[in-house]
């Protein structure tokens, strides 16, 4: 395939950015989107031009570092991560725009790389359990009913990619936070800190500059892990209960 790419270039956090146009040729439909960008960067390197900065790590849909806004959609046209998106999802001759996540709480560092440290600070505020370390406890010592285990497991699939924030018109991180709160509040180990956790995480979320949820649902649509919108209901329920106590 031959493609035209319109890519956001921004030399640094305090510089102004702009869309720049690039052509790539002979792209195999079996390449991933990031492999296609690798090829473009090899071409730029060969010409002595600055390669395009973008984030990636696992390239297996696990780490959450590779998010890009592709032709206006978080992670592009398929329900997957950018690293698992293949070029067969595009057509020969297509013009594709590639931008970083757009959210005040995710400032651009360079080109397509944003600082998602705000997510780390939300986790530091409460997305953990406190346990005494030592040898592994007996697996059946704290029985968890199957429906609770399943829901905790579903919520734990969140990889912290930030697509939910990028897709939300309010740049809200409620789906991300709802996934973390739901994961821990379904399990016995998450109960001792349950109230403090949700209050502290929501405080940090607002402090970071994420917006509020107005039930648009774009977050869940964009989520590559299929985290459902009802985790936000769990978050709100836990927050109301914690504030009442
Ligand atoms: S909820 Fe989904 S879209 Fe949001 S950070 Fe987690 S995996 Fe990414
Ligand atoms: S590079 Fe790890 S999820 Fe895409």
Automatic annotation (TrEMBL):
Every 4Fe-4S ferredoxin-type domain range: 145-180
One Gene Ontology term of the molecular function aspect: succinate dehydrogenase (quinone) activity
NCBIfam families associated with the record: dhsB, PRK07570.1
Name this polypeptide is given: succinate dehydrogenase
Cofactor(s) the protein requires to work: [4Fe-4S] cluster; [3Fe-4S] cluster; [2Fe-2S] cluster
GO BP terms, alphabetized: respiratory electron transport chain; tricarboxylic acid cycle
Organism, scientific name: Phycicoccus duodecadis
Transmembrane parts of this sequence: none
Pfam families: Fer2_3, Fer4_8
Keywords: 2Fe-2S, 3Fe-4S, 4Fe-4S, Iron, Iron-sulfur, Metal-binding, Oxidoreductase, Tricarboxylic acid cycle
EC number: 1.3.5.1
Family statement drawn from the similarity comment of this UniProt entry: Belongs to the succinate dehydrogenase/fumarate reductase iron-sulfur protein family.
